[in-house]
Automatic annotation (TrEMBL):
PANTHER family: CARBOXY-TERMINAL PROCESSING PROTEASE CTPA, TAIL-SPECIFIC PROTEASE. The keyword GTP-binding does not apply. GO terms for molecular function: endopeptidase activity; serine-type peptidase activity. Residues 407-451 are annotated as: Disordered. SMART domains: PDZ, TSPc. InterPro entries: ClpP/crotonase-like_dom_sf, CtpA/B_N, PDZ, PDZ_sf, Peptidase_S41A, Tail-specific_protease. Residues 88-156 form the PDZ domain. One of its GO terms (cellular component) is outer membrane-bounded periplasmic space. Pfam families: CtpB_N-like (PF22694), PDZ_2 (PF13180), Peptidase_S41 (PF03572). Keywords: Hydrolase, Protease, Serine protease, Signal. This is Peptidase, S41 family.
Length: 496
């Protein structure tokens, strides 16, 4: 990694929340422009003095200041936080893909700790932890009043040690006890496999420093086996985000060089940036150069991107870019909506490796859409299973306490006032309509793993790609109806 983690931009939805490792907190030119609120500072010192003098037990100055900083940042939004030495080290570990714990991306919640996403192939995923779960007890201790960092420390620990979580879950009338065993978490960022009918499947579970180069290898292998000819399914479900550089690199694999992927807007000039599909914006390790050498088919093949309510930050950036540039069809359910930038600012003083993680900007898709608290809406909505959403993925950024709001624009008001538009022809001149088939008695959703043969959304994506071939051979007259597996039918008719 270049200069350790300095200079890397992170954009994840949970504890490794999106961050730019920045320079020292000291910024003389900015400090000079700041007017100190003297009345509020006097009030703070009065309270500080009262605690020191009257609290039942003596309290160290260091503890009081740490708690004051934590409270100040926690009250801003769910992703700003104070990072002590352990939290700062854990943030760095998360970008390399190996760390200790349970394998959960989490955020704060008034009732405890909210699960943003369980990470593939970890104790949490194997125990069927779900996005939206609220952890309100850890080993019997209620954690709703604890800072998020303290709760995360309790879940971390030596490998092979047991831990018990008490979980509140939507649809369950009583708390659920989940027993797990801690492990060293080694996250494999990219998985791939060939599909039938000359198609390929790639899953990105987290955006790490080597995600772009691993994606390039997977695409090369699928191309050599002839499995990109009729399209690719790019699976970003339950991907909580990660490095922005990796998100730009993944986008660059499918978009022309120099294409806008995402922009940021904030209070300072440094926070106003545009990120393009150029090596200087995505290359972190030498192997990332492989992105620029990918075969031409990666820029033209049909793509379906799968997202859900636990697809956050970097995964939303990729989905938004491919959607805006009409490079892919987004399928699944609405994404999480974590569209803010956090800057990690190291602190001065005796304590080494401490910092604050501060929200400094918002992300916008190439067309100017805000991701924050809105998410990416799919082009084709497909539930988790034929019976409905198994993972209860209806808890998103907008549901988090103190989430960062996005000011409503004139365009937003105009769009809200307009009636829904009819389906428009795509580039091939074919109009699509997607509608549910006749309802049947609903069964309880069954647990499944992403990429397995019974992965309902993946099967819908495969059927959708097959439909692309049908478009090419469609005659000038007549309507064709294609049955997507498990409850959806699609009509394809010539545009009149």
């Amino acid at each position: 990694m270049k200069n350790s983690v300095r200079g890397l931009l992170l954009v994840t939805g949970g504890m490794i929340a999106g961050a730019l490792i920045s320079a020292s907190l000291a910024a003389p030119e900015r400090a000079a422009r700041t007017v100190l609120p003297l009345d509020e500072i006097r009030q703070f010192t009065d309270i500080y003095g009262a605690v020191k003098q009257y609290y039942v037990d003596p309290v160290e100055d260091k503890k009081l200041m740490k708690e004051a900083i934590s409270g100040m940042l926690q009250g801003l939004d769910p992703h700003s936080a104070y990072l002590d030495e352990n939290a700062f080290n854990e943030l760095q570990e998360g970008t390399t893909g190996e760390f200790g714990g349970l394998g959960l991306e989490v955020s704060s919640d008034p009732s405890g700790v909210k699960v943003i996403s369980p990470i593939d192939d970890t104790p949490a995923a194997r125990a069927h932890m779900r996005a939206g779960d609220i952890i309100f007890k850890i080993d019997g201790k209620i954690v709703k009043d604890l800072p998020l960092n303290d709760s995360v420390k309790m879940m971390r620990g030596k490998p092979d040690t047991p831990i018990e979580l008490t979980v509140l879950r939507k649809g369950s009338s009583t708390p659920i006890t989940v027993k797990l065993v801690r492990a060293v978490i080694k996250v494999k960022s990219v998985k791939s496999k060939p599909l039938d009918d000359h198609m390929g499947y790639i899953r990105v579970s987290q955006f790490q420093e080597r995600t772009a180069s691993e994606l390039a290898k997977a695409l090369d292998a699928l191309n050599k086996s002839g499995n990109l000819k009729n399209g690719l399914v790019l699976d970003l479900r339950n991907d909580p985000g990660g490095l922005l550089n990796a998100a730009i690199g993944v986008s660059a694999a499918f978009l022309p060089k120099g294409t806008l992927v995402v922009s940021t807007k904030g209070q300072t000039a440094d926070a106003k940036k545009e990120f393009l599909t150029t090596p200087q914006d995505y290359q972190v390790v030498r192997e990332d150069a492989a992105i620029a050498k990918l075969p031409a088919i990666t820029k033209t093949m049909p793509i379906v991107v799968l997202v859900n309510g636990a697809s956050a930050s970097a995964s939303e950036i990729v989905a938004g870019a491919l959607q805006d540039h009409k490079r892919a069809t987004i399928m699944g359910t609405k994404s999480f909506g974590k569209g803010s930038v956090q800057t990690v600012i190291p602190l001065r003083g005796e304590a080494k490796n401490t910092a604050i993680k501060l929200t400094t900007a918002r992300y916008f898709t190439p067309s100017g859409r805000s991701i924050q608290a809105k998410g990416i809406s799919p082009d084709v909505e497909v539930k988790d299973t034929a019976e409905g959403n198994f993972l209860d993925l209806d808890i998103r950024e907008a549901d988090l306490a103190n989430h960062l709001e996005v000011p409503e624009t004139k365009d937003d008001k105009a769009k809200a006032a307009k009636p829904a538009a009819e389906a428009k022809p795509d580039a091939s001149g074919i109009k699509e309509t997607v509608e549910p088939i006749s309802s049947k008695p609903k069964k309880a959703p069954k647990f499944y793993k992403y990429g397995d043969p019974d992965d309902y959304q993946l099967n819908q994506a495969i059927a959708y790609l097959k439909k692309e071939d049908a478009k090419k051979n469609q005659s000038a007259a007549g309507t064709q109806e294609i049955q997507l597996e498990g409850g959806i039918k699609m009509k394809i008719e010539p545009v009149k």
